Amino acid sequence: MQDLPGLGDLLDPLPEEIGALARDLIGLVRGMPGLTGKVMRGWRSVNFRHARAGHVCAVFPHADRVSLYFEHGRVLADPEGLLMGEELKKGRFLRLYPGAPIPEAAIYVLVSEAIALFA
Predict the structure, then answer these.
(1) Around Cβ 8, how many Cβ atoms within 10 Å?
(2) What pLDDT was estimated at residue 118?
(3) pLDDT on residue 31
(4) pLDDT at residue 65 is higher than 90
(5) Are 48 and 39 in contact (CB under 8 A)?
(6) Which of 49, 82, 55, 62 has the alpha carbon at shortest distance from 22?
(7) Nearest-angstrom CA–CA distance, 51 and 58
(8) Measured distance CA(19)–CA(75) in Å, rounded
(9) pLDDT digits (tens, 9 = 90+) for 18-47
(10) What is the β-pairing status of strands 45-50 and 35-40?
(11) Which residue, 8, 14, 93, 18, is CA-closest to 57?
């Protein structure tokens, strides 16, 4: 995966395993049709947009985990119960930790639904 401009600046200060996890997650989301990613330095995230659906999701790397935030997560079906953030008004997020598998199929479904609902 070719780095997005500014990705190294965002990830390099973090622990190596967090950077690797974030890169894997960013690569997964970035590979989905119609999405473009951009490093948002102020937010310390990589945000993903769709031409018709607008802002879909964002990857937030933290010192101990990586979060995948869905802008309209409240309206997404979550049959596997992966999304957190019931206290949030409209968004929801998924927490990923180093050493744990990335639920690729579930993420693909969630991102696809997030696009379909607003495209």
Answers:
(1) 12
(2) 84
(3) 93
(4) yes
(5) no
(6) 62
(7) 15
(8) 30
(9) 999 999 999 999 999 999 999 999 999 999
(10) antiparallel
(11) 93
